Amino acid sequence: MPELTKAKEPFRFSTRLHLTELTGLRATNLSQLSDLMEKVPDSCIYHHTHRFLQQHQYLSPEPPNDFAYWVAEVLGEDELAEKLASIDTIQYADINSLRKDFIFAINDFLKDSPLAKLKFARSGEEFHFMKSMSFILPTGFIAYDLNDFAQMLKQITFDSLYFHIFEARLRLGRGKNDFSNWIEDSFGDKALADEISGLDPYTYTLEELRKKLIWIIKERIFG
Predict the structure, then answer these.
(1) Is residue 98 within 8 Å of 89, Cβ to Cβ?
(2) How far apart are CA 104 and CA 109, in angstroms?
(3) What is this structure's pTM?
(4) Taking Cα atoms as reference points, which of 212, 169, 182, 134 lies closest to residue 13?
(5) Who contacts 178 (Cβ-Cβ below 8 Å, separation ≥6)?
(6) pLDDT tens digits along 95-124
(7) Are both 165 and 191 inside the same structural domain?
């Protein structure tokens, strides 16, 4: 194995505990959905765009978000549902920008289809806003170089991987995932950092994502 550069700062893996909480807010039509989306906390938008990933870590990703699903299945507005489902979460660096594009898509649709305001969900099928709550905890896994990092990627839980890839980038607004930030800051290896941040994690299962990251790191170590 080639001699490895030590990181300026070790990478300390964290994990998270996840809870879902009802907000008490609910929408019965598109106007209410748009209005409430402007008011709910970021944790609601995050929950309804990432719930599937959090609950079904082994299944094929790229599911529709909760907003698109409700608009299609309850209100029967397939055209709008397709627009909402096509909003590419990986393109956003913060929740507020993502929120604005959902609201814009709904309001733009209502301008062209004003009668859609008159479609209401049946009793029991309203859109209930929930929020995602996370509690971040240290794991005890610490990487001092890239080989340590690759070995520990094999051992950490899906919750730890999910936190550093998804939550850190979008929910915590760090711009990139924690792995890319660490590699660039501690090794000055922008090419490797960019290769990892260039992955679309929404197109992998978490196990596939783990394997891909390990492969990229080992390619960097051994060439």
Answers:
(1) yes
(2) 8
(3) 0.86
(4) 182
(5) 11, 163, 164, 165, 168, 169
(6) 999 999 999 999 999 999 999 999 999 999
(7) yes
Nearest alpha-carbon partner for 94 in 200, 171, 38: 171
Neighbours of 175 (CB within 10 A): 13
CB 199 within 8 A of CB 193: no
Residues 83-98 have pLDDT tens digits of 999 999 889 989 999 9
Structural domain of 90: 21-130
Do residues 103 and 150 share a domain?
Answer: no
User: Which residue type is seen at 127?
Assistant: F
pLDDT at residue 2, rounded to an integer: 60
What's the mean pLDDT in 152-163? 96
Residue 223: exposure state from Cβ atoms within 10 A (0-12, 13-18, ≥19): exposed
